[in-house]
Amino acid sequence: MTEWQPTACILCECNCGIQILLGPDGRSFDKIRGDKLHPASAGYTCNKALQLDHYQNGRTGRLTAPLRRGPDGNFVEIDWDTAISEIAARLREIGLRHGGESIFYYGGGGQGNHLGGAYATATMAAFGMRYRSSPLAQEKTGDFWVGARMAGHPMRADVEHAEVALFVGKNPYQSHGFPRARSVLKEIARDPERSMIVLDPVRTETAELADFHLQLRPGTDVYLLAAMAAILVRDNLIDHDWLAEHALGVEEVLAVLRAVPIEKYCAIADVELDLVTAATHRLARAASVAALEDLGVQMNRYSTVVSYAEKLVWLLTGNVGKPGTQYAFTGLSNIGFDRGHPAGEGPRSPVAGAPIISGLVPCNVIAEEILTDHPDRYRAMFIESANPVHSLADSARMREALAALELVVVVDVAMTETARQADYILPAPTQFEKYEATFFNFDFPRNIFHLRHPVLPAPDGVLPEPEIHARLVEAAEALTEDDYIPLRAALAQGREAFAMAFLGVMADRNKAKLAPVLLYRTLGPTLPDGADAAAMLWAAAHNCVRRFPQSVERAGYGTGLAAAEALFEAILTGRHGIVTTEDDYEETWNRLRDNKVQLNIPELLRVVATLPETDDDSVEWPFVLAAGERRAFTANTIIRDPRWRKRDAGGALRISLADAERLGLSAGDRVRLTTRRGSAEVPVEPTDRMRAGHLSLPNGLGLTVTDADGADITTGIAPNELTTLDSRDEWVGTPWHKYVPARLDTVEP
Ligand SMILES: Nc1nc2c(c(=O)[nH]1)N[C@H]1C(S)=C(S)[C@@H](COP(=O)(O)OP(=O)(O)OC[C@H]3O[C@@H](n4cnc5c(=O)[nH]c(N)nc54)[C@H](O)[C@@H]3O)O[C@H]1N2
Ligand SMILES: Nc1nc2c(c(=O)[nH]1)N[C@H]1C(S)=C(S)[C@@H](COP(=O)(O)OP(=O)(O)OC[C@H]3O[C@@H](n4cnc5c(=O)[nH]c(N)nc54)[C@H](O)[C@@H]3O)O[C@H]1N2
Ligand code: SF4
Ligand SMILES: [Mo]
């Protein structure tokens, strides 16, 4: 292979288009560059994409054969037929004894791979599984729920075209979250007509580019945002006409905001009133405001209430459905659609009775729902493309929970912290060895989709996730050749006949849930270049046309069935990514419930109305630890090879200069960091970016890999050895990892 091959970076949700040139061995990534032909990233990458060879070829503990844990606790290699039939038999047997709903599904994709997970719904149906979760239920479910309550449809921010960009607990310079983030941030910073407002206790790279950095005390965003909303009301900066036309529940909200003690709240947040006022006035003056909130608040005190207060700020100023504001996207993705039940009224998890948001059980109750003698407890877990032992709160408790289960199956590419706890491990090709895609595309006014083709062949011994799911579904006898034969016959007459036959099968609700595998086994083998895994995208394309006919038509695909086929064809052949839908900004209103926004969420407004008027620091725990910061060389646990990190190799604990001086600490000195849950030794990095009393540890460290001599090496601290399950949001159960009470002790060198 001597040609540049288009694919995408898999290290964050942006999935920038890249091109890879393989080395003479046909395996190493000799060169990597941004793909100028990618419709969203247009050649952009950050520093991390260039390190992807460490994911593909690094020291990762790559899995190349199915493994079964033996009676002595060690893994032994088994063949695929044995693995599939044993796993299917045990899942069936557990289902017979305890019901299929006792088998819990977790994961379904990381930052770059959602295609496999799209087939998992069939495996869930085949074994009667009902409950599931994913990492989204430890970060985004509060945002989803509030969005659903207020608008009935998720909205995203058009940062690129905004006059004012507002970042709340988000550091896009490192974490991205929208296309070409670093370039866009610099464009805003350079333009005297545009401004950036950042709420962050840390002077991040983003905060450095901001016009207004509100460097608040950690965990006080609810006060600061309530004060900002109250300033809008007090100074008559709200958009009355717009609200009269587009919003409901305005009076109730204004009544609460009129009573907010603005000065007191700014004092609690420890930000100068004048600065808060100036930033709020700037935002109110702007023709457009785009706001992004992220983990700094979503994993922090009052998380869901903060999501609400943040939205009030841009809703009161009328920032929806215009360029540079918030929009309701269209496209192939279904991620994050919640029904928005009032608190206490939606579906609930079987043991803890926790609210299920967007179909996901809160991550922080999973261990609780296993480690109990409740009859409805989970008995088995199927984990795919996720590393919950590392990524969920309280790793020790999660290990204990997995050990208590009758069966744990893990599908992954590497021997992860979670795979180490499994009974069976099923190895998959890497994301560059198979067809892969994400459903993380929310661009606007043009949305995109990128089906990536394999860059290099997979080694023997691994199977792509769609094939694993198909085999499990067949081993459960949920589908047989008899189900495939009529569909194949219809297909022989053309796609139109196939569509009709497929629609007929979908009328049977039990078969409808198996649709991905039905498509994979019938349409799949007829697709060019071994693109079987793309089969479910045919249904996704049809769905997209059904839901957003005009958007697809504007993107140039025509109308009706022909449009769906044209869109699917474009997906299959557009190797650099394609535009799927095209919209006008105003169309956002057609997607929102009743074409309006609802400002009054009574449960949350009540919290804003009754915030305690003091907020003292704890004496026992003098520090607040942010456990899991995004840095230049972190990428969740996707790259396991520690050598990929060109800076901050060990993942230092960042601490303010004042605290470092008081404790007599210099860069590289080791300290003992203690929380309610655990304790660890870690090197420090004193920096003037941090506030006194605040500490920060990077995410994605503490991974164990085996080096060339067979020795295990662990680099840095796994943050969730220090976090607790009970520190979580009242409404949706998301963890408060950015607000971990902590203590520091010096250690003798
Ligand atoms: N480099 C890199 N990029 C990534 C990832 C990665 O691992 N590495 N992971 C991806 C994933 S999965 C996600 S979800 C995103 C997350 O992206 P972000 O949420 O942007 O990342 P974090 O660094 O976790 O947290 C954001 C900011 O919150 C601030 N913060 C801490 N406490 C508070 C507080 O009390 N109030 C406020 N207002 N801010 C606070 C932190 O100082 C930090 O700057 O990043 C994605 N991008
Ligand atoms: N304390 C603390 N904890 C956190 C965070 C924090 O800020 N602080 N951040 C949280 C956030 S926002 C997130 S999103 C989560 C992330 O948590 P996870 O989603 O659990 O973590 P990832 O590292 O993204 O997991 C991806 C897994 O997929 C595997 N993988 C890679 N490619 C493939 C493939 O092609 N097929 C299969 N089957 N597997 C593959 C990788 O080896 C890895 O095990 O972490 C969360 N945990
Ligand atoms: S890590 Fe960087 S290059 Fe990779 S997708 Fe994210 S922004 Fe793009
Ligand atoms: Mo995330």
Automatic annotation (TrEMBL):
- Pfam families the record matches: Molybdop_Fe4S4, Molybdopterin, Molydop_binding
Record-linked InterPro entries: Asp_de-COase-like_dom_sf, MoPterin_dinucl-bd_dom, Mopterin_OxRdtase, Mopterin_OxRdtase_4Fe-4S_dom, Prok_molybdopt-oxidoreductase
Enumerate the PANTHER family for this protein: NADPH-FE(3+) OXIDOREDUCTASE SUBUNIT ALPHA, RESPIRATORY NITRATE REDUCTASE
Kindly list the GO molecular function terms attached to this UniProt entry: 4 iron, 4 sulfur cluster binding; metal ion binding; molybdopterin cofactor binding; oxidoreductase activity
Q: Where is the 4Fe-4S Mo/W bis-MGD-type domain?
A: 2-57
**GO cellular-component term (any):** membrane
Species per Swiss-Prot/TrEMBL record: Nocardia pseudobrasiliensis
Protein name per the record = Formate dehydrogenase
List UniProt keywords, sorted A-Z: 4Fe-4S, Iron, Iron-sulfur, Metal-binding, Oxidoreductase
On the tree of life, the source organism's domain of life is Bacteria
